[in-house]
């Protein structure tokens, strides 16, 4: 009997959690880490602009 | 055994050949994008009267808005845009977000140029391609299992291009005011981060099968909405209106700049789709080289400058070309492309987009059961309305009092048209714009 090695996620950042099909697309966007990176950068950019002005 | 294995091998061979073809198409799109994005600066150079930079940006963005709706309507028809949106409606949010990022970054560059001058500001915000490589690697499996040669080609090429861009910016700039240098550096770096991050929505859209022609139509709502809000916020509605009225003689040239920019941006989108953001973005950043060619040869910008300036231009241009070549020859290996597919499958599962559709669009072909896009009367009306607006502003436009060198303008324009023709034809033959 061979030893069963549990599979390890190759990349935690890119292989983020699956969302069931029934969940709305909006929820899929809001729970997507990739979405919050540009949002955070946009807010930081607007903040920077307000300091510039 | 042999008979079962042979068809599989043949399918694999066909898939590999298709991948190579799409990679070459992405590289060609990146080159063409650089040329057209660089040429977009030419009409804006005709505007020398005192209009605020924010008003200039706003007028260009209005031209961009018209082009982003009329060109897709002309090429595929808005029915194709509607079908794309029905399949992946979540991408509207991504596209609008990317448009907002672009507008804020563009406004920050205005402050950066004002405070530290173009020579320091440009290389700082040009770092966006390095950030694009980082996001491509982190989120979309780009350059995974690519091997050190590809890594050296892409990363080394992008760094060499940044060095070349620095030399070109130093050569082409005038000394900037030193009053707010710290603030200017922050503004330029901020613009680079915003633009570099803007490529996350780009790649997201193309991994989910969206057509670049559909993505840009919604991108522009973010762009024009955010730019209008910033212009009104900074200038005030009544003063802004007065400024626009006063600038009506040059509105056409600025809108034309926006229109040309959109053509370049469309090719940039195809480059991001077929070679990823880590390769597509540095390639289209060669626009600085083209912008400088127009500046030097057509507008006589460096006339009378020292020989060291020309040396910087030649050195910077050679470095840019070297970087472009290094990236162009670092094609994605089969292993890397498998990782791209994994990222695409992950996106498809998350947003519930049919796997065969995502696969077909990644391969630049129509999915089974997908209806052929058709142009309707509405599309022709859109094109006619956009054309009419351009004609009206062209009738109001003043011919600028500038000494242009038409001799060099002719071959540059010819090069643009040849690239446009060759790239459009290749896109059509290979993908039918899918």
Low-confidence stretches of chain B: none
- Tell me the structural class of chain B: mainly alpha
- Sheet with the most strands, sense and barrel status of chain A: none
Number of separate strands of chain A: 0
H-E order of chain B: HHHHHHHHHHHHHHHHHHH
Task: Write structural notes for this entry.
The complex is a heterodimer of chains A (53) and B (434). Helices cover 49% and strands 0% of the residues of chain A. With 53 residues, chain A is mainly α. The N terminus of chain A is likely disordered. Chain A has a domain of 30 residues. Chain A is built from two helices and no strands. In chain B, helix 1 packs parallel to helix 13. Chain B is built from 19 helices and no strands. Chain B is an all-alpha fold and 434 residues long. Chain B has one domain. Chain B starts with a helix and ends with a helix. Chain B is globular and about 65 Å long. At the A-B interface, helix 1 and helix 2 of A face helix 5, helix 7, helix 9 and helix 16 of B.
Kindly summarize this structure in a few lines:
The complex is a heterodimer of chains A (53) and B (434). Chain A is an all-alpha fold and 53 residues long.
Which key terms come to mind for this protein?
heterodimer, A: mainly alpha, 2 helices, about 50% helix, B: about 425 residues, mainly alpha
